Request: fold
Amino acid sequence: MFGRLLDVMSDHIDIDAALMLRVREGDRDAFEALVDKYKQPVMNLVYRTLRDATEAEDLAQHVFLQVFKSAQRYEVTAKFSTWIFTIARNLCLNEIRRRSRHPADSMDAEFHGEEDHPARQIEDVTAFSPPDAVLQRELEQKIDDAVNALPEKQRTALLLCRQEEFSYEDIAKVLGCSVSATKSLIHRARETLKEQIKPYLKTGAWNAPES
Reply:
């Protein structure tokens, strides 16, 4: 096991893949380390997709349950982050398809109060400090609404793009499309966000991501 782990590390496989190999050998501490690192990014993606705090939390837990159950079959064929976000996206799409067959199951999601809204806890936009607290609140809500309104592939591509370790190639693998298509999705998402928050650009309180 340790010889193989050293080989993995020498081949520049990311540390998370090495941790997952330890999980495969029954190392619970390694699994906890992966959960601690990825629980917030996974929750962010799932919530942005499902827009239901309770279901997002349940599904995020299911993502890590599937990771744990798949440990014995895990092989280092891609970055761990690519693998886990592919699992998360696939489970989200399965849930969306389930909702389309049973729409009444998730109708209560439209009636969550502000106290149930986790967006402030899982927000992924770049931090900034505008002088006016009211403006900041309005801007955060505007960005939140604009991101949530994006088509699923554009939204997922943009959220993954904000993960520092993700390359275009990694995002393309999660989405199951070409690198050029991925770049196009991210560009369209950014242009849409720029248009939505254009009134705020003049204030200098927000700098939209570059195309």
